[in-house]
Amino acid sequence: MVNGIINVYKEKGYTSFDVVAKLRGIFHQKKIGHTGTLDPDAQGVLPVCLGKATRVCDLLTDKDKVYKAVLLLGQETDTQDISGQVLNQAKVNVTEQAVYDAISQFIGRQKQVPPMYSALKVNGKKLYELAREGKVIERKARDIEVFDIKVESIDLPEVTMTVHCSKGTYIRTLCNDIGERLGCHGCMKSLLRVRVAGFDLEHALTLSQIQSKVDEGCFDMVMPVDGVFENLPAVHTASDADKLVRNGNKIPAVLTDYLKHSADSDIRYRVYNHEGIFVGVYSYLDETGEFKPVKIFME
């Protein structure tokens, strides 16, 4: 079984589930999961976890993301993108400066109401399933943060922008809300995910490129699990700690090569056994001088 993470370039027309299904066929294994849904019409970076790496999926979905989006002003749709049914239209009589001013107001922490056409579940049913039945239900606003929005170009009624945001941010909703702020409606025309955590567009591979590599017996596109945590300091355990490692117990710092340099218990570490095999991510408990497992990957 292949264990690791692949930086997939999701092409337009595929759902995130489609990508996983295709990769299961390519690698002939079932244990594969994606790290966050991308709309079928969206393209770009979709990290996919294979084998033991599926345990890191939830950690990657928590990461911030960067998107390049095209906002189309003058039109509101039920899906908040151009694939939906048009609900309202208006003339776009706004200045470029008004566009800049409106967009700047969406930078920072804020509440965002998820769209009806989304994969969020309410009472066990996905919102888009309810939307297709013609139902609209009240949704709770969620806390999100837009770290930055860079306007790349304005060619009214279109605005191209790069958005750096937190998890849970819907760019479709952001486009809709900017249009409403300008008083002329708006929807998303296109979306390209440029970056998720350390995975970027430059190194993403299409499904056909991945298939070709696997056919050639080449697996260099699979990032090892510990590669996701390369920003964390590494700690290696002594052979005396093997039993504790295997059982997922806390590990006394004296049984590692750890050199105390901070009393900050929030710091996490990559822990390896004495053979150099990646064990998992641990936090350091300063009060007891032990490493406590956060996420174990070694079987």
TrEMBL record:
<dbReference type="InterPro" id="IPR014780">
    <property type="entry name" value="tRNA_psdUridine_synth_TruB"/>
</dbReference>
<keyword id="KW-0819">tRNA processing</keyword>
<feature type="domain" description="Pseudouridine synthase II N-terminal">
    <location>
        <begin position="24"/>
        <end position="171"/>
    </location>
</feature>
<dbReference type="InterPro" id="IPR020103">
    <property type="entry name" value="PsdUridine_synth_cat_dom_sf"/>
</dbReference>
<comment type="function">
    <text>Responsible for synthesis of pseudouridine from uracil-55 in the psi GC loop of transfer RNAs.</text>
</comment>
<dbReference type="InterPro" id="IPR032819">
    <property type="entry name" value="TruB_C"/>
</dbReference>
<feature type="active site" description="Nucleophile">
    <location>
        <position position="39"/>
    </location>
</feature>
<dbReference type="GO" id="GO:1990481">
    <property type="term" value="P:mRNA pseudouridine synthesis"/>
</dbReference>
<dbReference type="Pfam" id="PF01509">
    <property type="entry name" value="TruB_N"/>
</dbReference>
<dbReference type="GO" id="GO:0003723">
    <property type="term" value="F:RNA binding"/>
</dbReference>
<dbReference type="GO" id="GO:0160148">
    <property type="term" value="F:tRNA pseudouridine(55) synthase activity"/>
</dbReference>
<dbReference type="InterPro" id="IPR002501">
    <property type="entry name" value="PsdUridine_synth_N"/>
</dbReference>
<comment type="similarity">
    <text>Belongs to the pseudouridine synthase TruB family. Type 1 subfamily.</text>
</comment>
<keyword id="KW-0413">Isomerase</keyword>
<dbReference type="Pfam" id="PF16198">
    <property type="entry name" value="TruB_C_2"/>
</dbReference>
<protein>
    <recommendedName>
        <fullName>tRNA pseudouridine synthase B</fullName>
        <ecNumber>5.4.99.25</ecNumber>
    </recommendedName>
</protein>
<dbReference type="GO" id="GO:0031119">
    <property type="term" value="P:tRNA pseudouridine synthesis"/>
</dbReference>
<feature type="domain" description="tRNA pseudouridylate synthase B C-terminal">
    <location>
        <begin position="172"/>
        <end position="227"/>
    </location>
</feature>
